[in-house]
Amino acid sequence: MLEKKDPDSTFQPSKESRVTVLSTKKLSVNQKELLLNRGIGLVERDFISILPLSFDIPEIPPNIIFTSKNAVKAILEHPSKKQLQQKNIFCVGEKTAEFLSKNGFRVYFSANYGSELASEIIKDLREKEFLFFCGKRRLNELPKRLKDAGVKLTEIEVYDTQPVSKKIDRIFDGVLFFSPSAVKSYCSENELAESVAFCIGKTTASEAKKHTSNIIVASTPSIENVIVQVVKYFK
Fold this sequence. Notes:
alpha/beta; 29% strand; single chain
């Protein structure tokens, strides 16, 4: 049972907690419970916001790439949705794959990281054509590797990520990060020196390394596994 301590998204377990962490993304009820049931206090705030962009799709090849749920959400109301659902979908992340399947898309291949997806495409599908739905601030590794290997790739930006920076007058035992953008947003106003940075993946950890060496990276890139690392660290 969640006990909400105040209206500013601060939660405490039923017993007084000696450890409190900050999540830079609002968590689901089940995700909160994973922390609170282990006696870990939680403060949560969204340090980034997602803004959909207007876009056109000139031509749809047989193969589509998504690297985030935000990109999938951006095309769910698009007139081309039904056509896209008939294509081979390549994606990054277990949650992205689940979300695609839930919304009627055919997931052909899913990888944990963009680098793994690029390797798979280059190995077996170098001659195919791909359409990549991405964010305006997307990482360059995946498209660069594909283009350098001669893969025909068209990119369409469908959303933008904006920082929602805020000064937090408190030092947390840990801070949970789920994207490089969230690290930049948080660290533009706050210090990380005395907190453990729990990061969802390697690229997020690379950004956190600019501010601290006290970093723990999830063994698989999911929100739940970030929470598992927090629980293991503070048990």
